[in-house]
Design brief:
heterodimer, A: 225 residues, 2 strands, B: 198 residues
């Protein structure tokens, strides 16, 4: 009688048959085939004999004992991790961001250009206005020089506006000098010339000058008059 | 209450749904309880230390629960968990080797069985599990994993094939060889002789 399963197929089914995990149809087919392989039949007996002892061991309950609190410990670790994550987020994101922002503010505030007010006024040639960028280190010394002067000027201007001048007499001259030097327009020293309007030249001439012009015109061309 | 809940949410899909939309703590507990033995035993086979296996199992479930909402169901939960377990165990084993290098340890696995104890004492102390683990370690890795996943975890060959990346035919051959070798080892062990005497 030819077995329905090859030796290889019978071998592959042997463990499942030995442990009772084959379906009814497969079991029947296996039982019919294994009779053709006596060595496999002996193997099956040995395996069943040994593993019947193994099956008495309750591996499931051993594992159950060993893994008893895993779910609790997992939940605890997850809760702990979420706390650590919020802290690590603080360290990873917030603190570096704040640090970078602070550095940026410090950097830009130290590099803000300071304009020298003297350079803003037009120069004597009347060419153009230009702005001088002063480094912060230089600016601090310049500012400290002008600090007292500016404070006094601010004081004077505020008192003038409020009509509450209460300045000691001995300081009046000094303050007047300061105002003249710094606030009043430089009318006398100004090199700018006001060019006359060509349509109203007569307004800029006095009587004698007009008479002289008329005389000159009369000499050159008597018919005009 | 928990008993009834365990039966109310008996499929992985229901647990995932509950975890994503409902009481995540309860669903997480059910999820871990359902798969803890599978994950722990796989980690133990790989790491050969109960403490490391315990740590690994916790780490596996933390990773799994973090990504459970993204689980698409392309494979079974057990296949997915098995892959995570292998990754975690590989990482732990690497750390252990690193520590062993700097502590001048030989890096060998923790001995689970005391050689001083006689088989009778081992049996009385319920140490057969340790003895069996030692025998399992004598098998090649593929055979050992195939045996454990089929014999203890009762997974189908198709699922094991996805986990181990081996054909079903190859797995069946591995399983037969593993069972054959274990039977011989057990038959010749002092344990079996003690058993037969008792």
């Amino acid at each position: 009688m030819t077995p329905s399963l090859s030796r290889k197929q019978t071998e592959e089914m042997l463990p499942d048959y030995a442990f009772g995990r084959l379906g009814a149809e497969d079991s029947l087919q296996f039982e019919q085939s294994i009779a053709a392989y006596p060595d496999l039949s002996q193997e099956l007996k040995d395996i069943q004999g040994v593993f019947s002892k193994v099956d008495t061991m309750d591996f499931n309950s051993i594992l159950e004992n060993r893994t008893r609190n895993i779910s609790v410990r997992v939940q605890e670790r997850m809760a702990k991790n979420s706390k650590n994550n919020s802290m690590s987020r603080l360290f990873r994101l917030v603190i570096p961001t704040v640090s970078i922002a602070a550095l940026a503010i410090f950097f830009f505030s130290s590099e803000i250009p300071v304009f020298n007010s003297n350079e803003l006024s037009s120069n004597s040639d009347g060419d153009s206005h230009h702005i001088q960028v002063v480094r912060s280190s230089d600016a601090s010394s310049l500012l400290s020089e002008d600090l007292n002067l500016n404070a006094v000027l601010a004081e004077v201007v505020s008192h003038q506006n409020n009509n509450e001048i209460n300045i000691p007499a001995q300081d009046n001259n000094a303050i007047d000098d300061l105002i003249a030097d710094n606030l009043l327009p430089e009318s006398e020293e100004s090199t700018e010339t006001v060019s006359p309007d060509p349509n109203n030249l007569w307004e800029y001439l006095n009587d004698n000058e007009i008479q002289d012009i008329l005389k000159d015109l009369n000499y050159e061309n008597p018919s005009v008059l | 209450m928990m008993y009834s809940l365990t039966y109310a949410l008996n499929t992985d899909q229901e647990i995932i749904q509950e975890y994503c939309s409902g009481d995540s703590n309860r669903a997480a507990t059910l999820f871990v309880r359902k798969h803890q033995k599978f994950v722990y035993s796989a980690a133990l086979r790989y790491l050969r230390s109960h403490d490391d296996a315990d740590d690994a199992a916790q780490e596996v479930f933390i990773r799994a629960l973090k990504n459970l909402k993204n689980f698409r169901g392309d494979s079974s939960i057990q296949t997915w968990l098995y892959r995570i377990t292998l990754n975690v165990c590989t990482s732990i084993a690497r750390k252990r080797k690193f520590v062993a290098f700097f502590t001048h340890d030989d890096g060998s696995e923790i001995e689970l069985e005391s050689d001083a104890a006689t088989p009778q004492q081992q049996f009385e102390n319920k140490d057969f599990e340790k003895h069996f683990e030692k025998m399992l370690r004598q098998l090649p890795e593929k055979q050992r994993e195939t045996f454990a996943l089929r014999y203890f975890d009762e997974l189908s060959y198709e699922e094991i094939s996805k986990m181990l990346g081996t054909s079903v035919g190859g797995l069946k051959a591995n399983y037969f060889q593993a069972v054959q070798k274990l039977a011989k080892l057990l038959k010749n062990s002092e344990f079996m002789q003690t058993w037969e005497r008792t």
